[in-house]
Amino acid sequence: MGQQVINGLFLGSIYALFALGYTLVFGVLDILNLAHAAVFMLASFVALALVGGAHLPILAALPLAAVVAGLIGLLLDRVAFRPLRARADSNISGLISSLALATVFEAVALQVWGPNVSRFPLGTVPEGRPIPLLGAEVSRLQLVTVGVAVLLFVSLTWLVRSTRLGRELRAVAESPRAARILGVDVDRAIAAAFFISSALGGAAGVLFGLAYNAIAPDMGRSVELKGLAVIILGGMGSMPGAVLAGFALGLFEVFVVATFGASWRDAVSFAALFLVLVLRPRGLLGAAALREA
Amino acid sequence: MWERLVDLWGTYESTLGYIGINGLLALSVYATLSCGQLALGNAGFAAIGAYAATLLTVKANLPFPAVLAAAALLPAAVAVPLGLPVLRLKGVFLAIATIGFGEVVRLGIVNWEYVNGAQGIVAIPRKSGVFTIWLFVAAALFLFGRLRGSKWGFALEAIREDEPAARTMGIPSGAYKLAMLALGAALAGLAGALEAHFTFMVAPNGFAFGRVVDMLVFAVVGGAQVFWGPALGAAFLTVLPELLRELAPLVGIEPGPLRLLVNGLVLLAVILFLPNGLASLPGRLRQRRLAREAA
Fold first, then answer.
1. pTM of the model
2. How many contacts (CB atoms, under 8 Å) link A and B?
3. Mind listing the pLDDT tens digit of every residue in chain A (293 residues)?
4. Portion 51-70 of A in contact with B at CB < 8 A
């Protein structure tokens, strides 16, 4: 039981990180960035190259890969979103252009790293005796993952609440036009949101790759829909909601697997997503918004 | 000469069939797009149609026309109770809820032992061919063509452009949206059934999220402003990989990644530079020529 909770929190922290980046862009732009999962995958490969090729320790490779993911996010904004911003249907055309870039990213990964599963070299995460905690055991990887995730949540919350950039982002989320009139450089603020969002997605990708020690060009598929489920459950655009729902989904999955078997895991998550959208469209913590007619 | 034709047919029969199946699927997404709704549950509807048809053929041995009728009606019947709550959602939220529905259908099948779960059903008798498939595409195109310019068609356009305004004019937008969701579901179910009886097999993996993304891409690349755009896009993107397979060795990229790369770049180019799809290309070129002549 205790072990299940720990495993669930571990998985949940990765979902939460992934969803946090997703929901940041959604909250600011009202656009679903379908390339988020592709950035997640690319970052994982970048970390693998840094560890396997350049022999960096994982604690150095993780932030570097996140920065590279952030730079990919800037590219994404520049190519897929900025040219469409003036269009009336920008939230649907943006969804499609991000899908286009996601396909291109997957093609690049397939060509460079091949379709097979790649693994981190042995000893990437120093083996050590698991730490006993409340009658269960926590591995170092789990501890580091949850630690990194919590650190990133706290820094992001601080950034959005208390910095100039955070104020600008909130202003843009409210109304890009009003923000522009008040002297906010809207394009710069949005670019920053993409950088942060993609860096978080990238960090989640590296941690996910470490957790399962399996990296493949299609690894994003397993999280892209779950990320959607998490941001819907948490209330779209709500960052605390995304974190809470990420942990909830992780715990939920671990218990569904333990009770009904592995093949039911995803079915139950999507059924929950579907029910939430029908019964309580604003999610668990979301503010009332215009999602219904 | 005759042998060569038979040869060609053998090589391209499956491509020709898939142009039609993908065309039907693209039109099924177009049905809801035509009234401005991004509903992405069509992989689920196609799965329902495909499995219903397969079971009716394999277990009940029903005649094929009855099987196809059931494969169209059952998803449409599912679409009504699904649509009543879900169509209240707008834009991206509707898309997500319907994606959720599609995944629930797929994962339900994966866990359903009676139909072999993830392995799917094989050795389905082949009952549909290129001719049957294209006949249904033609019928669907005819239907959408007739809608345009009719009272119904104008109502759909009004809802797409501005739903509150359309409602103010007395157009029952909810009923129209529901009808189009059901129509799209019927087309998707039909496509699923035709595919199952064309390829001898069904498996839940064929109806994953990626499948409905493909349908949307067909519709967008072809152009969702006119009814024949989605079918055009499906034909273009189904033939393209065949051409790329020949081209792959020349550019030194594996065929798999090359197909993805080109698909992604085509989609990006269309959404950035040709927002109304390939179908709008002739009109655009003509306009440009007229502008040049006028200058």
1. 0.89
2. 130
3. 778 888 888 999 999 999 998 888 888 877 888 999 999 999 999 999 999 888 888 888 999 999 999 999 999 999 999 888 888 777 778 888 999 999 999 999 999 998 888 888 877 777 767 777 777 778 888 888 899 899 999 999 899 888 999 889 888 888 888 888 988 888 999 999 999 999 999 999 999 999 888 899 888 887 888 888 888 888 777 888 888 889 988 998 888 888 887 777 777 777 777 777 777 666 655 554 433 33
4. none
Q: What is the ipTM of this complex?
A: 0.86
CA distance A120 to B105: 35
Residue reference for tokens 């981190």:
A120
If you measure CA to CA, which chain B residue comes closest to A113? B257
B234-239's contacts with Cβ under 8 Å and 24+ in sequence apart are: B234/B19, B234/B22, B234/B23, B234/B25, B234/B26, B235/B19, B235/B22, B235/B23, B236/B278, B237/B22, B237/B263, B237/B266, B238/B15, B238/B18, B238/B19, B238/B22, B239/B15, B239/B19
Question: How many residues are given for chain A?
Answer: 293
Residue A43 tokens read as 């970052």
